[in-house]
Design brief:
The chain is an all-alpha fold. It has 2 helices and no strands. The chain is elongated and about 50 Å long.
Length: 66
């Protein structure tokens, strides 16, 4: 297994757990359940991708320094 895949496995539950803190009731109008679910889905994917690549890049750049 690659390090990036393991990082995805670690970051996915962490990001999904942190998304529970987002209150989207004030963002969407009433009866817009489908839009809210799509928003959560896309936001989750984006945050998982960005956090994984951020941490991976930090470890990759630290290999050059040390």
């Amino acid at each position: 297994m690659s390090a990036k895949f393991l990082l995805y496995l670690v970051m996915t539950p962490l990001v999904l757990w942190s998304l529970e803190a987002v209150n989207i009731n004030g963002i969407f109008k009433k009866n817009r359940v489908v839009q809210a679910r799509i928003f959560y889905f896309l936001l989750g994917f984006a945050l998982i991708y960005l956090t994984t690549n951020f941490i991976y890049d930090i470890f990759e750049s630290s290999k050059i320094i040390f």
